[in-house]
Please model this.
Amino acid sequence: MKVAVIGAGSAQFLWELADLCALHDVGPYEIALCDTHPVRLSTVEAFARRVIDIMGTPTTVSATGDRRVALADANAVVVSVGVGMQDSIRPDFEIPARYGLRQTVADTCGIGAVIRILRTAPVMARIASDVVAANPDAWLLNVTNPMAMICMALDRMVPAARTVGLCHSTWITAAEIAGHLGVPSDELTFDGSGVNHQVFISRLEHQGRDLYPEFRRMADDPEHPIFDTVRGDLMRRFGLYVTESSKHNSEYVPWYLPHDSEVKRYGLEPNPYWERRSGNAEWFAMATDFANGRSDLPIADMLPSGEYAPQIIRSLVTGEERSIYVNVPNRDGAGARWIDELPEWGVVEVPATCDAGGVNPRRAGPVPPQCAAINRRYLDVCDLAVRAVVDGSREHVFHAAYLDANASATMTLDAIHAMVDELLDAHQAAGRLPESLHR
Model:
């Protein structure tokens, strides 16, 4: 087994890398680390070697700035990239803020995500093409945002790639629910389906007992912590609890961020992602201390990470079946959809099993019509943003922005157009915009 990690120096990837270095049950294997930033690459290489030394896993590590070298003979490829890094995120917040648009994270669906996919999709398509050239049977395990848009773009631009989008949002939400209900998280049975960061949890059970009535009572109780949350409010009105944080969810719908009263009620004061990402310097210092032995490595806190890529790799080698959630095109290969209520051209997040044969999505029952309607608006924005890249259509960038729930509830069409023009000009000047989208 050879695992290639493209974008290994990502700040978000440290815990998952530790997990990938601790696969005791897969026999001898290789991890090929690749990053375009030499200092970050050498740091994560040293970090990986330290984890391996502590854990005693039969693992060899290599590090290179040439992804084709890393991809040679790889069976699984984990991709975590940030095109433009910190500098590219700042204008995605600062420019919309000048137009009165509030954003909290801007990495999944919304104006920030629409602009991000324009610079990220071409890079991801080149990576996916290289994966297919190196080994057409390799699994491309994407952990890069905007998740749904990237997986949709790769489905259209490099359909031969065996792309699976992996996000921890669903299992983290299930663990949070278990905590509210006082149930051990490994004993909670749940199902959900929808789109990335907007999966609607349809079943909550413990030892055969339906826990949803109790959970809904919590959301109805003004004294309970989930009462004054966006997700609690959405569940009261639409019937099901949704994955990802309330700050994230406030961006995907039109009812919260445009209104001062709701921002105050739900604690949604914009928390610019680029400000949080400025903590990357602290992360890099911490990673460096771990790597060179100046700090004790908190292995007990790191492992298992819970992330899906290490679980998939274990299953590919051992054949042991595991249950996960994946982002895949809404087609099952036999003419049916994983989610009937959503379009087949979309990318959906659904349950799956992984084993020696790979990743196998499955249906999780119908999505209620009111929830599917929310998912469809999300997917329509994703579709237009991806079409902008695939078709080289600057006009589709504006179309996606016009239809964005948060922007359209906050701004006039003229203001949205002017904002998008300014964003595109900023990224064009920085060399981050595909030439086909230049003014």
Summary: The chain has a mean pLDDT of 94. The longest strand covers residues 198-206.
